[in-house]
Amino acid sequence: MRFQIKDEKLIPQRFFTEDSYRITQIPEILQPPLNPDFPYSRELQQILAGKQLLLDDIPHPLDEIQSHYENGYITYRKGIDYIGKKPMCMRCGNKDQQLFAIFHCSRCGENCFYCRRCIMMGRISECTPLIGWNGPAPNITLPQKIMAWNGKLSEGQQVASDKVVEAIWQKKEWLVWAVCGAGKTEVLFAGIETALAAYKRICIATPRTDVVLELTPRLKEAFPEIRVASLYGGSTDRHLYAPLTIATTHQLLRFYQAFDAVILDEVDAFPYTVEESLQHAAIQARKPSSAMIYLTATPNEKWQRECRAGKRSFTTIPARFHRHPLPIPEFAWCGNWQKQLQKGRLPANVLRWIKDRLESGKQALVFFPHIPLMEKALPLLRKLDSRIEAVHAEDPERKEKVQKMRAKEVPLLLTTTILERGVTFPNIDVAVVGAEDLIFTESALVQIAGRAGRNKDYPDGVVTFFHFGKTDEMLKARKQIVTMNREGVKRGLIDI
Ligand SMILES: [Zn+2]
Ligand SMILES: [Zn+2]
């Protein structure tokens, strides 16, 4: 799209004209003053409040959008801006030259730079306006009783819950570092309740769609009369304006200064490069004065350092709800297991470990760093028990296999890191074969170890890292677990 500038307003042009510009070229975007008598569309208000959308995202004609702009209700922002001579994507924050490309654009009739990093949310180029809302926010009516949840928090959860409430009121940043199985969702409930009661808009964001799907019914149950928008790729709630939003971090790219509090769950679940754009999205989705709560079991090294140095405000929940310590990983050297697998064998101690579980009937998860090696191991193990299965990210039967494991139809499940987090089986042991592989970072290993001993009836579980040479990541993972247990004992959160 191109714009002409007339009477201090931008006027969209459908075709190339010499006196029109791409939005990126316009030095200052003029914003007409709000006309209080303008009969604005409630539907556009719902769709656009707190958002930054492309024209293609909005199911309304351009004329209607333009009349809202001319009356001050809609804003146009640059999709791409230049910092000096370098382009920056205003939606995802991309400044990396390599992640921009150029194409001959039919919308502006010129060669047009576009951002490759956020292209999955629709193309942002030099002629793309980001469309937002400048009118009043939609009205929210609150029910008499906001929260229906009346469960009890553990002592550790209570401390964190109070901090979350405080951070939301004081519009602060706060990290909740909760061990796997501490019950971090409940820790948010009091904070969400007070925020909603004060007519604040709140968002829980997480990198993974699975988590959005799992959290949505839990939050709807805890806040039954509050409208909840559940956002992920292909979700039908996309245009729903709600006081409580649960979204994948990707979906946050469509928000702009929307939320009084953003709760970012599992920030560490993706590699840093991806994380960077998602963090940008989270920051942009916040109102300029707002709270930000980070929730994780495994903060990255930089954050851990900042916590230790007193540079980051945080609370730990070092113990699980059931007051038993976290299982501490054992290290077991297994020689060149890859070479042995190529020859159709498994290391003797790995085989022994697996046979012990099959004989005693204890279920187990066995992690492998790569699919081909896991697939080499599968037929060998099926000779011991034909019900053994293997899963990985692209496995079309992934859900069914996890379900079968839950139903105890599968005694042993081989897996890649896809099951490192999110899944809970009540009574399992866990092994990693090839724990020295680079894919097994400190955070991945802590998460994997965190699969064991989660249920109060089975609080113990064996965690064994089989390796061909110990790595720093293995040592750091074990240290983190030991430190948390120690802190849990010290604070009286673990029974010994
Ligand atoms: Zn971008
Ligand atoms: Zn263009």
How would you portray this structure in words?
GO terms for molecular function: 3'-5' DNA helicase activity; ATP binding; DNA binding; hydrolase activity. Residues 350-496 form the Helicase C-terminal domain. Keywords: ATP-binding, DNA-binding, Helicase, Hydrolase, Nucleotide-binding. InterPro entries: Helicase/UvrB_N (IPR006935), Helicase_ATP-bd (IPR014001), Helicase_C-like (IPR001650), P-loop_NTPase (IPR027417). This is DEAD/DEAH box helicase. With 496 residues, the protein is α/β, with parallel strands linked by helices. It has three domains: 2-133, no CATH class; 155-317, Rossmann fold (3-Layer(aba) Sandwich), CATH 3.40.50.300; 330-479, P-loop containing nucleotide triphosphate hydrolases (Rossmann fold, 3-Layer(aba) Sandwich), CATH 3.40.50. Helices cover 30% and strands 22% of the residues. It has 13 helices and 21 strands. The protein has helices at residues 42-48, 62-70, 155-170, 184-197, 209-222, 272-285, 301-308, 337-342, 348-360, 371-382, 398-406, 442-449, 472-490, and strands at 2-6, 9-13, 74-78, 80-83, 86-89, 100-104, 111-115, 129-133, 173-178, 202-206, 228-231, 244-248, 259-265, 286-296, 314-317, 330-333, 363-367, 389-391, 412-415, 428-433, 463-467. The strands form six sheets. Strands 11-12-10-13-14-9-15 form a seven-stranded parallel beta sheet. The chain has a six-stranded parallel beta sheet with strand order 16-21-20-17-19-18, with helices on both faces. Helix 3 (155-170) packs parallel to helix 4 (184-197). The longest helix has 19 residues, at 472-490. It is globular and about 80 Å long. The chain starts with a strand and ends in a 6-residue tail after the last helix. One zinc ion binds next to loops.
